[in-house]
Amino acid sequence: MFFTLNRAVTALLGLTVLATPAIQAFYVPSVGPQYVEPGQKVPLFVNKVTSDRTPLPYAYYDLDFVCKPATPEHVWLNLGEVLRGDRIMSSEYQLTMGQNQTCQVLCSRTVTSEQAEQAKQLIQKDYRAEWIVDNLPGATTFRAVDTGAKSYEPGFPLGFYNKFTDVAYIHNHVTIQVLYETVQRRLIVGFEVYPLSIYNNQGGCPDLSQTNPSRQPIGSADNSDTKLTYTYSVVWKEEPTVRWRNRWDRYLSAGHSSVHWYSIINSVFVNILLSGIIAIIMLRVLNRDLSMYNDEDLREDQLETIGWKLLHGDVFRPPKFGGLLAPLLGSGVQLLLVAVTVTVLAAMGVLSPSYRGGMVSVGALAYVAMSVFGGYWSARVYKVWRGTAWVKNALMTGMMVPGLCITLFSGLNLFIWAYHSSSALPFGTFVAIAVLWIGLSVPLTVAGAFLGSRKAEIQHPVRTNQIPRQIPPQPWYLKSPVAIFITGACPFGVIFVEVYFMLKSIWQDKYYYMFGFMVLVGAILIITVIEITIVMIYFQLCSENHRWWWRSYLFGGSSAFFIFLYSVHYFFTRLNVSQFVPGLVFMVDSLLASCAYFLCFGSVAFFATYYFLRKIFAAVKLD
C-alpha cells in the first residue's frame, strides 16, 4: 500500500520531467528476484565515480577519458538518487548469461593532455567507479585474514597513483565476474570487478597471460596525447554458498562490524545506568519536596520563602518570542516523526540497500505527510500562549525552516554546479521539491494548524500572576553556557559511536545497516535527553528562575553542538579534503543535519518538561 501511494505521488509530480526526463521524484524500482535464462543479455549500467577523500561525485560519462555510447539511455531516478549524485546510464559492455568472454575491445581513443590531467587528478584523489548489474553495484573483493570470509567494497578504483614518481596509471582492462545461483532458474547473486592497468598501444586485446605486464600511464611529461584501448573480460560463475535473499550480506559485512556492535552495546548500558541514577535522584528529591509542601504541619515553617513552589504564579507565563518558538516546535515534531518513520521502516527491512536512494525519497514523502502534525502541535502551543494569528503561525511553521534550508542549499548548489559534480541538482528536481513544499507540505501544515486551533486550550493547574516575579542571581552551573554544555555532553555520549558510523556511511560511501541498534540507541537517547533536561529545569526552578520555556528547548537540542564539532573533527581526521568547495559541502550538510537534530530533540525536551511541570504543580496543594 505504501509503494502504491509512492507511485501515485510520482504520477502527480509530472513537472519533475521539465528539464530532466530521466528523473522521477518517487520512482520505486523493482526489487524482487529477476530470473535470467541462459543466453539472455544482462545489461551493465554505469553510474558515477566517488571518493572517500571528497564529497563531490561525478557522473561516469562526464569523464572525458572513458568510453561512451553515442546515445546512452538514462535510467529513471528517484529523488534520493538524484540528491546523492546518481546518474545511471546504459553502457556498451556485452554480458550474456553463461557465456564467458576472454577479452573484448570496448573502444580505442586518443586522450588529450587536458583529459589525461583530469584522469590523473581523479586517480590521485582515489576516485572509484560504480557500475550496476541487476541492481548490484560492482565490487572490489576482500578476504578476512583470520576466517577467509569474502566481503565487498562498492566500486573499483579508476587507477592507482605512484606518489614517488608522480605517475598515474589507469585501469584500462576489467575482468567482470558475475556470480549466480541455480535453484529452479538462475539468479544473479554477486557482481565483482577486477581492474587491471596494462600497456596497450597497438589496439586490440592485450596479452593477459603476462606475469608482470607493463602498466598503462595516463598523461606524459611532454603533454602529448595518449592512446588508450579499453578492454574487458567476462566470467560467469555459479556460487552455491550465496542465496539471492542474502546477496547484500557481503556488502554489509565490510568494515569493523564487531567494533560497532561492542561500542553500541557499551554506550547503551552506560546510558541506561546514567538514566537510572538520574531517575532515582529525581523521584526521591521530588517526592520529598511534594511531601513537605503538602504536609499541613510543615507548610508554615518551611519552604514559604524558597523553592519551586513559589513560582506557581509565574511558571506558565508565556515566554518572550513565543511566536518564534511555536513554529520551531512544530517543525521539530514534524522532523522527529519523519526520523522515526524512516528508521522504523529501515529496521523492518522495507528500505533495503536495493532500493537505492529510498531513505531520502521516503523521508521526503514522510515529511510532507507529517506536516499535519507539525502544524497541529505548533497551533496547540501557540494557543496556550494566547496567540490569535494562527494562520500566520501556521505559515511560519510550514515555510520558515524548510525555506531557510532550501535557500542555503540553493546557494551551495551553485558552487557544486561550478565544479560540474553530479550532486548538483538539476532544474527539474528543484521543481519537484517546490511542488512538494509549496503545493503539499504548506497546505497540510495549515490544515493541521486549523485543527489545532479549534481544540480546547490546554489548562494549567495554577493561575498566572499579573506581575512577573524577579529572578535572583543564579548558581554558576545553571548559567546558560555551562548548563548547555552539561545537558549536551550526556546525550552525546549515547550516540557518538553511531554518529561515527553514520558519517562514514554518508561521506565514505559505505552502507549503513545497523538500524536495529539505531532504534535502541534512539530510544535511550530520548530518555537521556528528557531526564537531563528535566533535572536541569528542576534545579532552575528551585533557584527561583521561572523562564524555562526556551531553556528546555535549548537544553534538549544542545548535543547538536557536540555533533557538529565531532563532524568537523571527522572532516579533518578522516576525509583529507584540501579544496574549498568540497569542504563547504561537508560543513553545510553537517550544519543542516545538526540543526535538524536540534529541532527534533529540542521539541522532545520541551514537551516532556511541559508535561512534567503540569504534573508536579497539579500535585501541590495551594492556598
Oligomer: single chain
- Helix percent reads 40-55%
Distance between the termini: 57 Å
Task: Tell me the fraction of residues in β-strands, as a range.
Answer: 5-15%
Q: What is Rg?
A: 29 Å
Shape: elongated
> Uncertain regions: pLDDT < 50 for 5+ in a row?
1-30
| Average pLDDT figure | 85
Largest β-sheet summary: 6 strands, antiparallel
- Return the structural class: alpha+beta
Tally of individual domains:
3
Overall number of strands:
16
Annotation field: number of helices: 15
Subcellular location: Golgi apparatus; Membrane
Organism: Dimargaris cristalligena
Protein name: Transmembrane 9 superfamily member
Family: Belongs to the nonaspanin (TM9SF) (TC 9.A.2) family.
How would you characterize the overall build of this protein?
The protein has helices at 2-12, 79-83, 113-124, 249-252, 257-294, 322-347, 358-369, 371-384, 390-418, 427-454, 480-507, 515-542, 549-557, 559-575, 580-618, and strands at 41-42, 45-51, 54-59, 89-90, 95-96, 101-111, 128-133, 136-137, 139-143, 150-154, 156-157, 159-162, 167-170, 173-182, 186-196, 226-238. By secondary structure, it is α+β, with helices and mostly antiparallel strands. It folds into three domains: 1-30 and 320-459, no CATH class; 38-252, no CATH class; 255-316 and 482-623, no CATH class. The strands form five sheets. Strands 2, 3, 4, 7, 8 and 11 form a six-stranded antiparallel sheet that branches. A hairpin with a 2-residue loop joins strand 7 and strand 8 (136-137). The longest helix has 39 residues, at 580-618. Mean pLDDT is 85; it is low at 1-30.
